[in-house]
Structure formats: structure tokens, C-alpha cells
Hints:
The chain is mainly alpha-helical. The chain is built from 10 helices and no strands. About 85% of the residues lie in helices and about 0% in strands.
Amino acid sequence: MKKYILALVPVLFISLVSADCGITNLASCISESFFNFLLGILNAPIQPLLDLVYNLLTQPVNIDIFSEVWGIVVYILSLFYGILLMYIGFKFILSGYSFEQREKAKAGLAKIIIMMVLVQASFYIYSLIIEVNASVTTVILNMIQKDFFLLTIDNISNLGLELVFAIPYLISIAITLILLTLRYLIVSSGVILFAIGIFFYFVEPLNNYGRLIINFLISTIVITFFYSIIFLASSKLLDVGSFSNFKILVMIGAFTCINLVTIFVALFVIIKSASSVAKPVMQVISVVQAVAG
């Protein structure tokens, strides 16, 4: 059995050695081929995850699956158009000879007309924002070297760090992939909330809620643009001599940075939502307390 194993060793080395190897550089060529073979094994589980991350960053989110639900929501919202127009009409009639009140009524009518147009076109506006963001993100990511996200043999120091931090790097990519998947689901279904947000934005009592919904959705869409900026900046760091020997740490730092940015944006939205909801509630409580007192 040992004889067969020993017989296979030269075959293994021959398969690792490239055609450019000769007698003079055989030792260095064998070692380089061996490390390339080792990095190929290490990059095997990383490459599919990187492909998924790239697709989630660059491909426009598919919102067509929610087009029917969007149509139902817009139909329900359109039932309120008549009520709002009647309300503005009554304000215009009751304004009498008050120039200020008549101007407010006219401004309110203009807002309702703009709101009706934007709500009806919200699906296409939302789709346009997604496609523009995906195009810009793709352009920036294509400026990054193809092997930046892969484990490579640049120098001995880099190779040692890559072997040590390969698993943490894989974990950081997996976390980013999970966050990007959640972002995809939110953006995909967000076309429904986008129409509601526009409607709320033009209705005075609900203005804060509408602004919150629109800001949240647009921030979730364009956050991939900032991801691409972080990746591009990280790749440029490798051109600096002091960072070129720590490529794996720069890559882990880039993915960790975008994960922290995502968590920060999520916490900011949650806090902002809580404050927006709490503000009118506190106003109602204060009014009740004043009446009761």
C-alpha cells in the first residue's frame, strides 16, 4: 500500500507544476504551485459566496412579484382621493373673501393633484431608483481588482495571515450575505410601502410617517452604493505599502465596516420610528391631561 502512495506522489507534484517550470526553478515552481493549489482549496467555498454578494449588490431588485399587491394598495388609496378633494372644495367655499384661506386651499389642491400623480406612478418611480442605484453600484464595483476579494499569494506575510484568518473572513462574508438578503426582501416588498409613504407625506397629520417610510426605503435602496464606495476605498488601501502586507485584514475590515453600517442604519430607523410614533402620542396625552386637570 505504501508503494502505491509513494508512486502517486510524483504524479501529484507533476499535476501541481506548471508548464513554465524547468530544471533551474523547479523547487520554487513546485512550492508556488503547491500554495496555489492550497489557495484554490481555500477559495473554493469563498467564491460562491462572493458571487452571491456581487449579484445582490449589482442586480436590480425584482419588484414585479408585488405588482398585483401594489395595484390593490393604490386602488384602496384612490378611494380617499374624492374625500380629500371634497375637503379642499369645502375649505375653498368656506374661505369666503379671505385671501389667505383661498391661497391655502389652492395650495392644498395642488398637493393633492401631485400626490395622486406620484402615487399612481410610484411603482415606476421606485423601479427607476432601484435601477439607477444598481447601475452606479456596478460601475464602482467594476473598478475594483477582480482578485481583491480572493485569497492570493502576494508575500509570505500575507499568506500566513490568510491561512490564519480564512475562517473569520468566510464568516464576515456570510454575515454580509445574510444582511444583503434581508435588504433584498425589504426593498422588494417596499414598493407597497412606497405608495403608502407618498400618500401619507401629502396628508398633513400623517406627514411625519410618510417622510419616515420614504426615507427608510430610499436609504435601504442606496445603501449598496455606500457599500461599493467602502469596497473601492479598501481596495485602494492595498496600494499603500503599510497595508499591502495585511490584505486579508483589510478585506475583513471592509466587510465588517459595511455590516456595522447596516446595523447602525437599522438602529437609527428604529429609534426614529419610535420617536415619530411617540411624539403624537405624547401630544394626545398632554391634551388629555390638560382637559382632565
